[in-house]
Amino acid sequence: MVKCDASIKAMLISIDNDNKNDFIIEDLDEEHLLVKETKIMTLKSRLAEMMKQRLKDPTEEDESGKEN
C-alpha cells in the first residue's frame, strides 16, 4: 500500500495508465493506492524521473550553456 498526497497520486496513476495498468491493483481512497509489491521499486523510479522532469530548474539549462 502506498500513501501519498493527491498530486503524487495523480502522477502514480498516470504512470500506471501509461504502462497498461501494470502497477496499481486498486485505488483505495484519496490518499492510498494498493500497488503490486514486485513493482514498487520500478514505480518509485519512474515517479522520481517524472518529478525531475516536471520540477527541472529552468536556470540549470541557462547556466550550463554559458561560457566562462
General description of the model:
The protein has 68 residues and is an alpha+beta fold. It has a single domain, classed as TFB5-like (Alpha-Beta Plaits). Helices cover 51% and strands 18% of the residues. The protein has 3 helices and 3 strands; from the N terminus they run βαββαα. The protein has helices at residues 6-18, 40-54, 58-64; strands spanning 2-3, 24-29, 32-35. It has a 3-stranded antiparallel beta sheet, with helices on one face. Helix 1 (6-18) crosses helix 2 (40-54). The longest helix is centred in the last third of the chain and has 15 residues, at 40-54. The radius of gyration is 15 Å and the shape is globular. Its main location: nucleus. Pfam families: Tfb5. This is General transcription and DNA repair factor IIH subunit TFB5. Component of the 7-subunit TFIIH core complex.
Summarize the structure.
This protein is an alpha+beta fold and 68 residues long.
Compute the number of strand runs: 3
- Report the portion of residues in β strands: 15-25%
N-to-C series of helices and strands: EHEEHH
The portion of residues assigned to helices is 40-55%
**How many domains would you count in the coordinates?**
1
CATH class designation: Alpha Beta
Instruction: Summarize the main sheet.
Output: 3 strands, antiparallel
Kindly, what is the distance between the CA atoms of the first and last residues, rounded to a whole number of angstroms? 49 Å
Overall shape: globular
CATH superfamily: TFB5-like
The name of the CATH architecture is: 2-Layer Sandwich
- Read across the widest sheet, the strand sequence of neighbours is 1-3-2
Q: Any low-confidence stretches, pLDDT <50, length ≥5? A: none
Mean pLDDT: 88
Task: Indicate the CATH topology.
Answer: Alpha-Beta Plaits
The helix tally amounts to: 3
CA-based gyration radius: 15 Å
Keywords: DNA damage, DNA repair, Nucleus, Transcription, Transcription regulation
Subcellular location: Nucleus
Protein name: General transcription and DNA repair factor IIH subunit TFB5
Pfam family, one: Tfb5
